[in-house]
Design goal:
By secondary structure, the protein is of the alpha/beta class. The chain has helices spanning 48-56, 95-108, 116-135, 152-164, 182-199, 210-216, 253-266, and strands spanning 3-14, 22-33, 37-42, 63-68, 80-83, 170-174, 202-206, 219-224, 233-239. The protein is built from seven helices and nine strands. It has a six-stranded mixed sheet with strand order 5-6-7-3-8-9, with helices on both faces. The chain has a three-stranded antiparallel sheet with strand order 2-1-4, covered by helices on one side.
């Protein structure tokens, strides 16, 4: 597929009272084709989450342009889904209501819920939500539960379904698995990669776990700083070829070690956080 996302000379700085502006990103350039799975790694504070918010449209750059399909889009829309580290579920809504909230609000708003057509569409939305529940590996009985009745892994599955029901072209995931235990995390990695292969959705996935990045991504993008006072920018990119993967879909151990060494060498002045113990391949 052709180019879908382009970040052109992106700069982001925040004004702080009594201090010089804090620069987070500077001269960041990145081009992403439709259907890619981009895993984003980097040191804490180098602008990974900021980059996702820029692509989402929830934040504007101080300098440069963010182009989606060649256009600057001023605010979030249905074509860009977002799954944060902390579950974005409404605690007072059931699983089913959480998943259907987005399409209901987009089509009807608040007042439109009073129209007869809403009942018909609501049934259709719920049928679709049940399909996503099954796809996420959840049970029909989970549909009427509330978030506090679910495990962390189950809540994250619902959050992904909540994003996917909008059928976004782009799915942004900000350290979405970091709070999960290793076994659940491995299950979620396999689930998301399977969904990506089935749907062709363009995914950007922020993680500190290099093994996770190498398993999930078709390309690993490393953000970093040239020195502690510098701003974040792309300092290294690495494509993960299918030929490096074994039958399980994970890169082979020797490939993990080789590519991890390349990423670490590119970190320029400091080792990245490596959580090899959580690699399940």
């Amino acid at each position: 597929m052709g180019e879908l996302i382009r970040l052109e000379k992106i700069g982001v700085e925040y004004q702080t009272r009594g201090h010089a502006p804090k620069k987070v990103l500077d001269a960041l350039d990145l081009t992403i084709a439709g259907g890619e799975f981009i895993a984003v790694c980097g040191q804490t504070g180098c602008g990974k989450s900021t980059m996702l918010r820029l692509i989402l449209g929830a934040e504007k750059p101080t300098a440069g342009r963010v182009l989606i399909d060649g256009c600057e889009l001023p605010r979030p829309d249905r074509n860009r889904g977002y799954v944060p580290q902390k579950y974005s579920l409404f605690p007072d809504k059931t699983v089913l209501d959480n998943i259907t909230f987005g399409p209901e609000m987009e089509e009807f708003g608040l007042l439109g819920r009073l129209t007869p057509r809403f009942r018909t569409r609501r049934r259709e939305f719920r049928e679709t939500a049940h399909k996503y529940l099954r796809q996420m590996g959840l049970q029909e009985s989970d549909a009427n539960k509330y978030p506090d009745q679910l495990s962390g892994g189950m809540q994250q599955r619902v959050a992904i379904a909540q994003a996917l029901i909008m059928r976004p072209k782009i799915l942004l995931m900000d350290e979405a698995f970091s709070a999960l235990d290793p076994a659940t995390r491995a299950d979620m990695q396999k689930l998301v990669r399977t969904l990506w292969a089935e749907t062709g959705t363009t995914i950007l996935f922020v993680t500190h776990n290099i093994a996770e990045a190498l398993y999930l991504g078709t390309r690993v993008v490393l953000l970093g700083k040239e020195n502690p006072n510098a701003s974040g920018r792309v300092i290294f990119e690495l494509s993960v070829p299918d030929s490096a993967r074994g039958a399980s879909g994970y890169p082979r151990r020797e490939e993990i070690e080789r590519m991890t060494k390349l990423i670490e060498d590119a970190a320029m002045g400091g080792r990245l956080e490596v959580e090899m113990a959580e690699f399940a391949g």
